[in-house]
Amino acid sequence: MAYEIPAHGGKLINRELTGKERDEAAKKASSLKQLVLTEREIADLEMIATGALSPLEGFMTKDNYESVLDEMCLVGGLPWTIPVTKQINDEVKKLIKAGESVALTDKSGKALAIMLVEDVFAHDKKKQALSVYGTEEEAHPGVAAVYAMGDWFVGGKISLIERPVHADFKELRLDPKDTRELFKQKNWRRIVAFQTRNPIHRAHEYIQKCALEIVDGLLLHPLVGETKGDDVPAKIRVKSYTAILEKYYPKDRVVMAAFPAAMRYAGPREAIFHAIARKNYGCTHFIVGRDHAGVNRPGGGGYYGSFDAHYIFDEFDPKDIGITPLFFDFTFFCKTCNGIKLLLPIRLFFSFRFVIIPSWFLAQKHLVDNL
Is 3.90.226.10 the CATH classification of the domain at 19-160? Predict the structure, then answer.
């Protein structure tokens, strides 16, 4: 029997309406006040509804929002590091009251969901910037996105009526329930996920194959949501993975699916966020590379240390995170073997701190030979 990892919080959330319930909600939405969603909020909405952001059932209310900023957890102590919010401006805030239902729409006015408003609260932009991104610099794309938001948030449970329309990657858009079922069919007990917003390169290939030495299967999960303008387009990233899947990887041990999230560029906090989401997709392990989800300053240098995304896992009880991160430090090109090698061992988060993979010994010798 394949092992099924519990969703974050113990239950995979489903907020997508079907059948008569959906028809009634669609009719109701036409008479409600409308809140237009940004591209990031649409991505968050879909992930909430499908359980990718379990245990969230809607956009965050004030208590959870402040707990995430201050304590990196939801109310009750469950680890969570990134706010998932619906922003509004002063004008809209005057029209919205707690206790009423509103329609959440795309830019065309199409109702995607209904939200029962539980809370309307102020947005402390500087506090969010410092807590989540560790900087107030507007040059940071995540901070710039925060500053561009409205001064208020509205929170409450959502009920999805219509999924957003996606013109691309249709065959790759698997929900958490779909990937979980796929893993069951393949009888995989240990599944490692790999997150990327860049095309695959040789170091990526190497660490993925290293991870395959200790798990049953690999989920390639490229992010296809909103990214900053100078990032490599999702189409190119997916194309690079399609090529390596067809020509280089064992087809019975690797699958690919699209991760619909928008990129936050929050470094260490986003590494935790990405790991938790992959737990909800049914993965038992998650690769955390150097400067995971980091971004460079315009003048050079990064906002985060090279291994800050590794160290942040030490701030949580492993049982509460519930997915094993695999930490890869450095890879290098070995002139002796004419290939990529791993300089440092994989560090594991759970009961033992180091695991040595066979190729590591050869890598150390070749490194010395090349000095």
Answer: no
